[in-house]
């Protein structure tokens, strides 16, 4: 009985450590896109792109009420726990309501492409954060203007 308990505990610890190793390096590139044509992926955006999992400077501006989705390049299969908009000025997260969390296979995926997410109404700089468990494994910055 005791041996069985030890084996189960070791298997559990191995599963947790393997999961953490996979998820922290799963996203090798991320970019944000305007959600103007749901279901139509952009082309050529990730060709020869370097490994960038955290985009800290906003590349795109959105007007209040516009929609967006993201493009990601994955090194391995991953299922996200949640996506959030993080307001840098308010240091506050808002969970994006979506069922598009995966699982996503390795390669290129476009979460939110078929049902783009409405950007926050308050102008400012935001990070769209991707979570696995309690860890942010990738993020992309953008700004909302009046």
Could you explain how this protein is built, in words?
This protein has 146 residues and is an alpha+beta fold. 16% of the residues lie in helices and 38% in strands. The protein contains 1 helix and 10 strands; from the N terminus they run αββββββββββ. The strands form 2 sheets. Strands 2, 3, 5, 6, 9 and 10 form a 6-stranded mixed sheet that branches. The protein is globular. The relative contact order is 0.25. The model is unreliable at 4-22 (pLDDT under 50).
Number-wise, the strands total 10
Per DSSP, the total helix count is 1
Query: What's the main sheet like?
Result: 6 strands, mixed
- Rg from Cα: 17 Å
Give the amount of beta strand, in percent: 35-45%
Summed over residues and divided by their number, the pLDDT gives a mean of 84
- Estimated helix fraction: 10-25%
Order of helices and strands: HEEEEEEEEEE
Shape: globular
Cα end-to-end separation: 65 Å
Spans of at least 5 consecutive residues with low confidence: 4-22
Which structural category fits the helices and strands? alpha+beta
Draw up the topology in text.
Blueprint: H1 2-24, E1 27-34, E2 54-55, E3 61-63, E4 67-74, E5 82-87, E6 92-95, E7 107-109, E8 117-118, E9 124-132, E10 135-145
Parallel strand pairs: 2-10, 3-10
Antiparallel strand pairs: 1-4, 4-7, 4-8, 5-6, 5-9, 9-10
